[in-house]
Amino acid sequence: MSSEIRKIIAEHAHLSVDVDSLADDANLYQAGMTSHASVNLMLALEDAFDIEFPDSMLTRSVFESVAAIEAALTQLQAAAA
Amino acid sequence: MSVAVEADQAFLDAIRRIADEAAAPNADSVDREARFPVEAVDALRAERALSALIPTELGGGGISFEAVAQACFELGRRCGASAMVFAMHQIQVATIVRHLDGSDWFEGYLRSVADEQRLIASVTSEVGTGGDMARSIAAVEPNGDGLGRFEKQAPTVSYGHHADDLLTTLRRSPDAEPGDQVCVLTSRDQHALEPTGTWDPLGMRGTCSPGNVVRAEFPLEQVLSAPFAQQMNESMVPISHVLWSQLWLGIATDAFDRARAFVRAAAKRTPGETPPSAIRLSELMSELSLLRAEVATGLRDFCDVPEDDRARLSEMKTILRFNNLKIAASEQAPRVCQKAMAVCGIVGFKNDTPFSVGRHLRDTMSACLMVANERIHKTDATLLLIAKDV
Ligand SMILES: Cc1cc2nc3c(=O)[nH]c(=O)nc-3n(C[C@H](O)[C@H](O)[C@H](O)COP(=O)(O)OP(=O)(O)OC[C@H]3O[C@@H](n4cnc5c(N)ncnc54)[C@H](O)[C@@H]3O)c2cc1C
User: Whose CA is nearest to atom 24 of ligand 1?
Assistant: First the structure.
């Protein structure tokens, strides 16, 4: 899942560095992701994983790193299963 | 009555007295001369109102947020500029109280705000990013020996030259991204303000808000370490929108009261006949009631978020909620003032009658650019793409 997330980040987050140079827990906002870009990332994740983030998950911290995004997706997929 | 409720009531009694006795009599000269409302601020200091939101353990008043919001409304009814200075100071205090994260330095600092009734101004906007608080250009630069320094081009610094301290947003370090920000508190002996222009605006003249180059050198413990994005979403932005909207409502309410006094005077001159302006007053009241409703629900929605669940304030639906409070109140307040002027006619337009509402109209016209509504709409438009149950 992590590699798929990284691919979507590379396309949508507009980082100032290569996402593959970042650790799973590196902060994406500190790597240059703006709030605007983060919304595009969320939309792309919803599309790619066929899920919907509920309002309670639509906060900055849920999308702040590859690991945080993976945890959120895992939680949503477990709830759906 | 509980101790807390009594403290709130005593605080609000003092605020109403200050509004009537110190703010109101000077409101016209503050406006005409674009001078700092020194009488009202001195009176607020004497009542220890500048530390109202600081917990009693740190020497503050321990006053509730609702009571401070009500105080903004009461001051706004008498002098918009005094209310804005009070509100902006309380926004800085609340942000520090809510995000000091156990910092010894900031706890000591809050004690000194309470002891010395220190006044805090804010330097968030910047030449080059405008009202986009979420990005900075200037950065904290390490200066050796645990010191940092910065130089920031600030387009608007309200009462900067009258404040004891400044709260400034900056990039965390010289190589940090524009959105990777922190807040730094500096005192008068650590910073210098070099004015880059004058302050002769249309309204809110008493806030004394010219542009400045701000330069400072300070110990690094004066950096509030939590990421500014969190402070902004959980405190600074929603609290600004709630307190500003209260004072804009206060100004609009006084404009309505003046229009009502005008209609009553007209009715007395023609007993038995309803003056034509009475219908317009009734229309005005329905406009005011829309503003009241939004401002009151905005405050309640903010207070409904429990202290231990502040993260909820950074959910997109909540950000949208408080952005909409700002947009609605900033558009409705000047509308009410303009309609009040239409009720009063020429005596409302003139600056020297008991029914003058020119200052009210001009002061509330600043609301839509105090962080441009277009900018907020653009943010909201993006959030609406993903938020669900708004
Ligand atoms: C009375 C008063 C007191 C103030 N006090 C302080 C203070 O103490 N400290 C402080 O830091 N700041 C203060 N400000 C500044 C304020 O908070 C804003 O930052 C500032 O007014 C923004 O400046 P601007 O309008 O030139 O810039 P911008 O926000 O850049 O706006 C310029 C123009 O561009 C438009 N625009 C901008 N972005 C967009 C967008 N994304 N989409 C569409 N249109 C857009 C706007 O509508 C506007 O017409 C104060 C402002 C006022 C009115």
Answer: B130
In tens digits, chain B (390 residues) has pLDDT values of 688 899 999 999 999 999 999 999 999 999 999 999 999 999 999 999 999 999 999 999 999 999 999 999 999 999 999 999 999 999 999 999 999 999 999 999 999 999 999 999 999 999 999 888 999 999 999 999 999 999 999 999 999 999 999 999 999 999 999 999 999 999 999 999 999 999 999 999 999 999 999 999 999 999 998 899 999 999 999 999 999 999 999 999 999 999 999 999 999 999 989 999 999 999 999 999 999 999 999 999 999 999 889 999 999 999 999 999 999 999 999 999 999 999 999 999 999 999 999 999 999 999 999 999 999 999 999 999 999 988
Length of chain A: 81
CATH assignment at residue A49 = 1.10.1200.10
- Is residue B156 within 6 Å of ligand 1 at its C-beta? yes
Task: Please state the φ and ψ torsions of residue B26, each to the nearest 5 degrees.
Answer: -105, 0
Q: Which one of A60, A62, A69, A76 makes the best mutation probe of the B interface by having the most chain B beta carbons within 10 Å? A: A60
Number of domains into which chain A is organized: 1
User: Which of B184, B369, B377 is the best mutation target for the ligand 1 pocket, counting ligand atoms within 8 Å of the beta carbon and taking the most?
Assistant: B369
ipTM: 0.90
The boundaries of the domain holding residue A31 are 2-80
Q: Supply the DSSP symbol for B345.
A: T
CA distance B40 to B29: 13
